[in-house]
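Researcher: We're reviewing a set of sequences before deciding which ones to prioritize for further study. For each one, I'd like a predicted 3D structure that I can look through quickly. This is Branched-chain amino acid ABC transporter permease. If possible, include the structure in token form so it fits the rest of the review sheet.
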Amino acid sequence: MSTIVLLTVTGLGLAALYFLVASGLSLIFGLMGVLNFAHGAFLTIGAYGTWWASENLPGAGSGGWGFAFAVAFGVAVGTVVAALIELLLIRPLYERHIEQVLVTVGLSLALVALVRAIWGADPRPFPAPAWAKDTTSVLGASVPNDRFLLIGSAVVVLLAVLAFLRYTRFGLVIRAGVENRSMVTALGIDVRRAFTLVFAIGGAFAALAGALGGVYLGSISPGQGTSLLIFAFIVVVIGGMSSITGAAVAAVLVGLVQQFANYYAASGVGDLSVVLLLAVVLLTRPGGLTARVA
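Model: Here's the predicted structure for Branched-chain amino acid ABC transporter permease, in token form for your review sheet.
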């Protein structure tokens, strides 16, 4: 029983990490039509920004509020980088999807190479707070506290995104701009500013995933964002390319399948199981789990 509880909570923690990355991807593609292959680089920037802040900024150590300040710094850096990329590189390429793919793929390679050139390719230990390394007993299982941190953060992000899109003026403008951009522009509303905000929010979620992923994995490396991005794309496809709630459901499925398959079969089988899950969904529901059946 304790093993099942531990695997379930750990799988949900991994699912939360995948969702934090996938939510930004789903938001940017669903509302802007941009397939952002540089999203993993935002995760890497957030992770290294948090690590650098904890090592160099006063008051941003691994304890309590200091760690929160370091995470806020990493998220802020990821947000600013994402906003600048949208303004300088993505905005001129709306409706030009091939060019978008080429630019974001090249940008992803360039940003990861820049991080590797500055801090090296070797993994670096991540300064997690002491309470995150402790465990909590749940039905006889000793569960690391960082799992609960990830799950709680993912729930907050999900609720915040849904509330933002439904109840705020910017959310209404964004949804209207997606449906009919020319009409919204004719009404005197600057859709471009709203789209920049969406891209920045997506970058913030990826940067947050980088910071919390460092806590979960115990270390960070330049290629970490790329590996997590692969599973995030799988989550987005399974859940439906433009559905935040679909991404949340798909992340739970992927995280649990991966954890249980790795434990009960063999290490690495979890990845294969996720790919098989993706294939089954594409064959039975090509539009994802949230797609309407005709």
